[in-house]
Amino acid sequence: MPEDQNDAVTDRSAPIRVVLAKLGLDGHDRGLKVVARMLRDAGMEVIYLGLRQTTDSVIAAVEQEDADVVGLSMHNAGHLALAPRILQALADSDLDVPVVIGGIVPEADVDTLRDMGISAVIHPGASALEVADAVRRSVA
Amino acid sequence: MSAGSETRAAGELLERARSGDRRALGRLLTFVEHRDARAHGLDDLVHPHATGNAAVIGVTGAPGAGKSTLVGHLVKEIADAGQQPAVLAVDPSSPLSGGAILGDRIRMDGVAEGRAFIRSMATRGHAGGLALAVPGALRLFEACGFGPLVVETVGVGQVEVDVTRTADTTVVMVAPGMGDAVQANKSGLLEVADVLVVNKADRPGADDVRRDLEHMLDLGHITGVTEHWRPEIIMTTATTGEGALKVHQAIQAHRAHLAETGGLEDRRRSRIRQEVADRMTRRLEDAVTACLASEPEELAEALQGTRTPASAAAALMERLVR
Fold first, then answer.
1. Contact residues of B toward A, CB < 8 A
2. Cα–Cα distance measured from residue A105 to residue B110, given in angstroms and rounded to the nearest whole number
3. Is A10 in contact with B37 (Cβ distance < 8 A)?
4. Are A44 and A135 in contact (CB under 8 A)?
5. Does residue B272 form part of some domain?
6. ipTM for the assembly
7. Is there a domain that residue B309 lies in?
8. Across the interface, which of A14, A41, A93 has its CB nearest the CB of B99?
9. B132-153 pLDDT tens trace
10. In chain A, which residues have their Cβ closer than 8 Å to the Cβ of B106?
């Protein structure tokens, strides 16, 4: 019988916890719902915040849920304005958590986003495997 | 890291969490949830600060009944009354992938944002240790000054119901269109209710649900089940928050009743008893897994058919318990 009084065993199979959200006025959440399902089926725990979130609400969720990664869906061409804000907000809260962006992002902006510190950009048409891989790699 | 330095790390996080660092608390909750080696010694550190006095409110009901939405408003009422609520929102894990979509927060954020610490927890299957993670998380919340503590679970599955019924006050939510009086009687959920909520009161059929519940409670009166406490039935519309104040008042009334009758101490004791039982069960399960992994002779005999499974189990148990 185990002697350990605290029942502590290291659980190596702990699922990745990912916060999914859309920031501000951007009402197209069908893609994000599909992504939530893809990540669940890849064995991750998805904290689904959905529409009309703020940087504050995302930060609060990351802190309280001890999330490993943030996934933001963007379909309103706001990515170049919103990405720096969320990265700054995370830095201000001393949170070292990668951010993945999915949605409509012109190819020309991808390098700019990556240079800012966005871990990955996922485009329409990405397979479930590609989506899960991008999230996993950003955490690793 | 050695066990000693892990305890120190957990101790530092606890200090920070107790002085209001939400990220530190978030991290500690992960330790508790994973039965992580980093949580080694955490329970001992938390224990002196967790008095067991914080009110624990269980909220349960069928999926889609409106639990999370109501909890959002309930948490607001609690915060308005000058208290610091925390929420543990439990959602099921996929039995196939082990992943989960934790969608309770989305229902609470609009109202409860900034007013409560909300943590989503996946059930992680039967062996996932939900029964152990919940009491550990509640103690942690209390040690960090939170209370009352709300635990929300879907009212399906024994573990979820057990978790909820160990609360001081159990709120069971139903909504119209989810079955008639026979269903209401069939479900063991209603039996554990201290407060009954009929949500979606603006929908057709809500009054019928209320009537069915009243009848059911009348029968409980005859059989003695509701002798000491007859749950109040409250009509709510969680999307607007209507009725949330009444739910809060009913919870407080039930707690006052428990305090008067000594029921509070009874529930506290049964909660601890349950946790001790759950931890023992977990240890036994671990021991059984380890025993079978060692490919004992009795197992081989059962596999060959020269021994019945029951006889193999009896012989192995004999060894295990000794």
1. 22-23, 25-27, 29-30, 34-37, 39-44, 93-94, 96-103, 105-106, 109, 113-114, 117-120, 122, 124, 132, 279, 282-283, 286-287, 320
2. 28
3. yes
4. yes
5. no
6. 0.88
7. yes
8. A41
9. 889 999 999 999 999 999 999 8
10. 48-50
- Is it the case that residue A70 has pLDDT exceeding 50? yes
- The encoded tokens of residue A127 equal 């397979």
Of A37, A50, A65, the CB nearest to B120: A65
Residues B223 and B305 in one domain: no
Cis before B63 (ω within 30): no
The predicted structure's pLDDT at residue B126: 60
Are B67 and B97 contained in the same domain?
yes
Tokens read off for B74:
């309930």
Query: Which pLDDT score is estimated for A63?
Result: 97
The structure tokens 């099921």 sit at B92
In this structure, what token pair is assigned to residue B285?
């399960």
Q: Which of B46, B106, B107, B284 to mutate to test the interface with A (most CBs of A within 10 A)?
A: B106
CA quadruple A7, A8, A14, A20: dihedral sign: positive
The reply to whether B100 and B223 lie within a common domain is yes
| Run of H or E including B151 | strand B149-154
At residue B45 the predicted structure's pLDDT band, cuts being 50, 70 and 90, is very high
What average pLDDT does range A63-73 have in this prediction? 97
Q: Which residue has the higher pLDDT, B52 or B55?
A: B55
What are the residue ranges of helices labelled H in chain B? Answer: 3-18, 22-34, 42-46, 67-80, 105-112, 130-143, 158-165, 181-186, 206-223, 244-261, 263-293, 297-304, 309-321
Of residues B142 and B215, more confidently modeled: B142
Are B143 and B231 in the same domain?
A: yes
Residues B114 and B16 in one domain: no
Q: Which domain holds residue B314?
A: 277-321
The whole-model pTM stands at: 0.90
- Of A1-10, A26-35, B85-94, B103-112, the one with minimum mean pLDDT is A1-10
**Total number of domains constituting chain B:** 3
CA distances from B87 to A26, B25, B114 (A): 28, 13, 12
List the single residue in B with minimal CA-CA distance to A51: B106
In a domain, B180, yes or no: yes
- How far does the CA of residue A68 sit from the closest CA of chain B (Å)? 11
Residue B270 lies in a domain: no
Q: Which domains does chain A have, with CATH numbers?
A: 17-103+114-126 (3.40.50.280)
Chain Cα centroid distance, residue B176: 24
